[in-house]
Design a protein that fits this description.
10-stranded antiparallel beta sheet; single chain; two-stranded antiparallel sheet; mainly beta
Length: about 190
């Protein structure tokens, strides 16, 4: 357990295995597995790493499960959210090196922001009060889900849904290796008036 003034990070298990030959590590044998148990973090506690976090005093709960090898990382579970309920994240991600390219996939089960969180983030990410765009404030509560990933052909694909207080949006996007883009935005209406 790592305790900071307003944070407690619980890492009950992390294991790493590997083999060596002639006193040298054999990279292909490296394996790691671990969990972060339900923990409470206050971003302001680590402002020495990123000064813009000094104003983030809301507690964030988080938990995670991960594993990896010398060629990849799998975060099978990452959940985080503020104790106020203004922010919730539930995602899984993997990344692996295959030949000369890096493949990755993200499954966003949920990213939810309350209208209060959107305003707070826009004020604090730069470390100074800024006015968020009127259209963004009018969206109200935002909930997004979807998937994205790199393709074997060297491109990127993504699809998702964004639900707001003023309407819903379905998105599809792809980009080929040679930077050719294709996309679709579908909605029955988003009322920003």
């Amino acid at each position: 357990v790592l305790d900071l003034p307003h944070s407690s990070l619980s890492v009950p298990a992390v294991t790493a295995t590997y083999r060596h030959r002639d006193g040298k590590l054999i990279p292909a044998t490296v394996k790691i597995q671990g969990t972060i148990a339900q923990s409470t973090l206050t971003p302001a506690d680590v402002a020495f790493l990123l000064p813009s976090l000094r104003n983030f005093h809301s507690q964030v709960s988080c938990e995670s499960e991960f594993s990896g090898t010398s060629t990849g990382l799998n975060i099978s579970k990452f959940k985080a959210g503020t104790t106020s309920g203004d922010l919730a994240i539930d995602v899984s991600v993997w990344v692996k090196k295959q030949s000369s390219q890096t493949l990755w996939h993200a499954d966003v089960r949920q990213i939810a922001l309350s209208a209060n969180a959107v305003e707070f983030l826009s004020e604090n990410l730069k470390g100074e009060k800024t006015e968020s765009p009127v259209a963004l404030r009018r969206l109200g509560n935002i909930m997004a889900s979807g998937t994205a990933g790199a393709t074997l052909a060297g491109g990127i694909t993504a699809r998702g849904n964004i639900r707001t207080d003023v309407g819903d949006i379905n998105l599809r996007f792809s980009m080929s290796r040679n930077k050719t883009y294709n996309g679709l935005v579908a909605t029955s209406g988003v009322n920003l008036k």
